[in-house]
Amino acid sequence: MGATLMTTMAASGVTAKPGSTKKTPFGKTPDGEAVDLYTLTNKSGVEAAITNYGGSVVSLKVPDRDGKLGDVVLGFDSVDGYVNNTSYLGALIGRYGNRIGHAEFKLDGKTYTLAKNNGENTLHGGTKGFNKAVWTAKEIPAKDGQALELTYLSKDGEEGFPGNLHVRVIYTLTDENALKIDYFATTDKDTVVNLTNHSYFNLAGPASGDILGHIMMIEADKFTPVDSGLIPTGELRDVAGTPFDFRKPTEVGARINSDDEQIKLGGGYDHNFVLRRKPGEAVSLAARVTEPKTGRVMEVWTTQPGVQFYTGNFLDGSLHGKSGISYTKRSAFCLETQHFPDSPNKPKFPSTELKPGERYHTTTIYKFSTEK
Ligand code: GLA
To answer: How many angstroms separate the alpha carbon of residue 118 from the centre of ligand 1?
Structure first.
């Protein structure tokens, strides 16, 4: 039997029923457009709140080892925070996640020029990426939990990218305590696409200090080293013998200040890892993170070839999030599943091209559990 979908315009603060979705007003954009917050609650009370502004995950409440629910993502209390947000908290990222070098790329012999919104480069889609778009939201039925569909039309030429891109993202909060994200896109002209989600996690809770004590495992034998603008050099480098070797679970902070050229360039971790995909597997394990104090565990499963591990190095305490919490350096980490940065300019990297008639579909699952 399908889960019951409920839409109520109830004032925020009303406790959601297990196995339901609740819609509440989340404020207005500077253009006066009203946006909403959709709170998905699964059968055991786990809760994901998502706004259609930027498709941002606003809060995610999962149990600790004692069964106590706690928020594990950074976010803001209303849309204003997201409008002013330059750190992409929780947002859907597009048309191209992470950087494109020199803010240009060639496709079918033509050069496309993009906005330089990160030094000489383009970051996360340009000046007004998908994180600043108001998406059309619709609650849809799901066999395995609560689902929200978000759609957005990125017009031909938007931020310099060719082709009308119809994007559809489905967030499903499953009854197995996973937040599953399906990304779909089609185009009417050859283009490049790289969609991801930029949630910042702190499994001990957003007010609990830095994430250096989290234990990280990343299923990657190689990573993509970068230059001073954080653009991949094109090399796939072995993680063995470097601070990037997370094949065995290791504390995030163990090597984050080491005297390593790549660590210094990133100001910590801000690198794409080349995932060890298992042939024949629909989704493969990308990373497993455990937080010793609370016992919370997060696994990331994906169809994507890479993941950007970012340790919140640019957070500097100036952003004030939910309940006024100041988001300080390294108070959260991101695991952004993706194609490699600057792929449009790196012919040897897996291609990010999408052509008319093709269907882009990727899946990423953030799965929560606990251990003793
Ligand atoms: C990504 C980038 C980082 C930084 C953050 C947002 O993770 O790789 O360099 O831009 O997004 O601040």
So the answer is: 10
Q: Answer whether 244 contacts ligand 1 (Cβ < 6 A).
A: no
Distance CA 366, CA 372 (A): 20
Q: What is the pLDDT of residues 315-343, one digit of tens each?
A: 999 999 999 999 999 999 999 999 999 99
Instruction: State if residue 230 touches ligand 1 by the CB under 6 angstroms criterion.
Output: yes
Mean pLDDT for all residues in the chain: 95
Where does the pLDDT of residue 278 fall: very low under 50, low under 70, confident under 90, or very high at 90 and above?
A: confident
Rounded CA-CA distance 92/152 in Å is 11
Which element (helix H / strand E) includes 182?
Answer: strand 178-187
Kindly give the residue spans of alpha helices, DSSP state H, lying in 246-321. Answer: 261-266
Q: What is the per-residue DSSP string for 3-43?
A: PPP----PPTTPPPPTTEEEEEEEEE-TT--EEEEEEEE-T
Given the residues 47, 149, 198, 291, select the one marked as catalytic. Answer: 198
Per the annotation, the verdict on 198 as an active-site residue is yes
Name 332's Cβ contacts closer than 8 Å, sequence gap at least 6. 73, 74, 200, 201, 202, 206, 211, 312, 315
Q: Which atom of ligand 1 is nearest to the CA of 308?
A: 7
Q: Is 235 a catalytic residue?
A: no
Distance CA 333, CA 315 (A): 10
Our measurement of the distance from residue 305's CA atom to the centroid of its chain's CA atoms, rounded to an integer in Å, reads: 15
Neighbours of 235 (CB within 10 A): 11
